[in-house]
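User: Teach me something about this protein's shape.
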Amino acid sequence: MSTKEWTPSSWREKPIAQDVIYEDKAHLEKVLTKLRRLPPLVSPVEIDRLRSQLADVAAGKAFLLQGGDCAELFDDCSSDPIEHKLSLILLMSLIILHGSRLPVVRIARIAGQYAKPRSKPTEMVDFEVADDSIPGQTKVEKREILSFRGDNVNGYDKSDRNPDPERLLGAYFHSTATLNYIRTLLLSGFADLHKPLDWSFSHVRSPEIHKAFSAVIESLQDSLDFMKVATGAVGGGERGGIETVDLFTSHEALLLEYEEALTRSDEGSTTRSFSPPSSKASTPAVSRSVSQVRVGSNSESAYPHSPVRPPKSPSLANSLANSFSDIRLESAKSQKKEKWYNTSAHFIWIGDRTRQLDGAHVEYFRGIANPIGIKTGPSMKPEEIVRILDIVNPDRIPGKVTLIGRYGAEKVDQFLPAHIDAVKATDHVVVWQCDAMHGNTKSSQTDPSLKTRHFVDVITEITKSMAIHREKGTILGGVHLELTGEVNEEGYSVTECIGGSMELQDKDLSFNYRTHCDPRLNFEQGLDVAFLLADHLRSKRRGEEPKDILLSSLRGRSGQPQA
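Assistant: First, the predicted structure itself:
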């Protein structure tokens, strides 16, 4: 573990993976100087609130739902795409909450997920060029160009692959606009449970699954009708409580120059939260006392920002006492450890390709106060997990670290148990999360140029992870999914993953395949996962086995190509 003093720029002394090379260094520094002066995107108050809620997840008192795009595009910074993504996460969380009776911590891959790691820095692409041997004719010629690294690095168009520092500013302002609209929606009642829900299961082809889904929704609507009365929405004035929710932002922190520029100290600053008021006080589920900060009302600390103070006694004894008290206060302040926050998002994570113990990314992550994620998988040795936990969380803060397992349905049995055992042998309290997407990517059989994922693999990895944690006496605290609620002009969901209750087949992928990176679950498949999770979590709290209808039916309808 590094003992050298940490600074937001100390990562520059370490070897770095997935680095971006900018030709114009002066231009890059000008952009970074601008970013350092721009306001933070999120506040330390919000970040600390998320860390408290993740501590509840680690203790089994809440469930973590994290999801969103593989890679955001600047063009998607528009009202409809944002509303569709937000709507899916909210509906999924509502279904999970109803089944589990646990508060759901919602983290979106949004407002900053613009960069992507790539296995190779370059790729071969086809270019149409003039055929010198035949006047007036063209031919296709393969050329090697830089890989698309995300909208905050370069463009998807083949002619726009040189890294451009101005895109870092573009990422900041698009993130700002996205965050602003999300906050506007939440404050305007977008998540208000008093509003009737428009549930439609026309996409579900299986009568058995349709019946199971409808039964869950009927029960959910009954509960919401009860809450309308209980909170005063019917026959009386509003007593509030379920009009809005917390929603936190996240992204993979790849471009450390950008992250460093938005790393801010809490020293000498007063920060306030700009997110909607929490609705936890009226949530009729598990108490969130761990997540709330209580300040004694009989102390000056109850009024930390008030310019008014109780009058001092004029006696010499009291004057001396107050002087010594002030000295002790100043001494305590001088001993207070300075905290640094990454204000580009509430939650950031280290990817599978950038978690080298002696690398730049681990060095950067070890100094920030944000809750962080670490991707773990088959290539990570159990002792490596312990070493990286010691580096990034030496104070053993609960809720600080989320281990995001990305093993694949075929390998989770082989690697997850040893990773759990390694962490259990320490005093680290982590959030265990299942990323059931990245270990299950395959090529389409119909069009090998398209990447896809089979829904059966996604739910298999989730259910296997739940079973392994149950056997080990630990808790699978949440899931991490690449998904989207977006639709095309005709209103059809994306077709990038095979299977689910829609029974999408391999030949259906090209119908509405929109991703520029990895395939995502669509709206209907996202709800499928939510129902599956709700079924398992409900069965867990009741001490029952999960219903076969949701698990076996969805698993059996994998969407494999049919003759």
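Now, about its shape. The longest strand covers residues 122-130. Confidence is low (pLDDT under 50) at residues 234-241, 268-317, 327-334, 557-563. If you'd like, I can walk through any region in more detail.
User: That's plenty for now, thanks!
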